[in-house]
Amino acid sequence: MSLKINIISLGCSKNTVDSEFLAGHLTKRGHIISYDNSRQNFDVAIINTCGFIGDAKEESINTILMQCALKQSQKVDKIIVCGCLSQRYSKELQEEIPLVDKFFGVFQWEEILEYLDTEVEGSYYKSRLLSTPKHYAYLKIAEGCDRACSYCAIPLIRGRNISRKLEDLVNEAKELAISGVKEIILIAQDTTYYGIDLYGERKLADLLKELVKIEDLKWIRIQYTYPSQFPIEVIELMQKEEKICKYIDIPLQHINNSILSSMKRNINAQQTRDLIAQIRSLVPEISFRTTFIVGYPNETEEAFEELKAFVKEMRFERMGCFIYSPEEGTSAFELEDNISDEIKQDRLEELLLIQQEISSEINQSRIGREFEVIIDRREQDFWIARTQYDSPEVDNEVLISDKYKLEIGQFYKVKIVDAVEFDLIGEVIE
Description:
The structure is a single chain. The protein is an alpha/beta fold. The chain folds into three domains: 4-124, Rossmann fold; 125-364, Alpha-Beta Horseshoe (pyruvate-formate lyase- activating enzyme), CATH 3.80.30.20; 370-428, CATH 2.40.50.140. It contains 13 helices and 18 strands. The protein has helices at 13-28, 54-72, 84-96, 109-115, 154-158, 166-178, 196-199, 204-211, 233-240, 257-262, 269-282, 301-314, 341-364; strands at residues 4-9, 32-35, 42-49, 76-83, 102-103, 136-140, 142-143, 162-163, 183-187, 219-222, 244-249, 287-294, 318-323, 370-379, 382-386, 397-401, 411-419, 423-428. The strands form four sheets. It has a six-stranded parallel sheet. A five-stranded parallel sheet has the order 2-1-3-4-5, sandwiched between helices. A five-stranded mixed barrel has the order 14-15-16-18-17. Helix 1 packs parallel to helix 4. The radius of gyration is 22 Å and the shape is globular. The relative contact order is 0.08.
């Protein structure tokens, strides 16, 4: 029997990929799939949860409760909860939210299919239904993580790093390109670690060398890298290969040596500065995205001032910030959470305000310049586009008047005519 299924994917893009493969197999069986649809009634709601930090857990719980309310009003018949939160707190969730029909962990995708009377046909990685616009897709190159960062529960939830075979990834990318994907975004918990478990050495650069040969791919983007022992050959390849976006995402988390040591980041302040300088010397026009954690245990006022000064000095093109959240089972959980919520929030806002000013200045400097952009969507009176210097959903966008006859998923040359803190205004060069 064909079921109407609503898949709600929370958290990171790695979850997005998991949901897309699940949806691909369900679609193959004849089920009708929607993504995050609140406007219809469904036979089944599948919630792929995130359990990374406190805010993400809260969002996951609220989403589950919302679906339970829909079930009580007979708009949803069955609720399935899977993913990180379910992996970690399955027993507690079953006791607290009995309206959920079934809980599954992070690697129980085939069990979910079996529960819905669906079998896997062939390789699990052969069936995928994109939830993103059809012109870009995430390519998850590995699962799990071998790092032991003090604040992070991901290795506890998803286990050790498991890389996918290079040839399998290249074949998947080729199939995505044939289907119309023009931009591939490489993701993993740590993309720079790719290949060590399979090949005994880092293979990210080798993977990129194969991906750039795929004719229909226009952009290849790298996310979720790790600063310690960063494979600089990746940046050297980026310098040479036009298809590799001049963009790198390296979550640095802090700059104070004492905090970095406690976080078990395996890198110090000077090594961090040296890495940034080396990357920018090789690719001067690179767009550097990073994230920081504020309010980590024993983050003194002096340590936070050092972080602020670092952000001002480095002038990162893109920056995110999170408040420290104690996670059971991590080594940092044993430390006293001795920074008040009020101070944590103040530090978050202060750092984001600094970045807002930096982003505004960088964007203002781009007025008058020309860029190639890809059109992601149409919204109100604008086409929403991106340059190669921006990832979808998290980074800056280029707004273009809908007076132009453009197509989603196509590339255009634009001239920047205005800018605000986090967006550029462009006109098409015809």
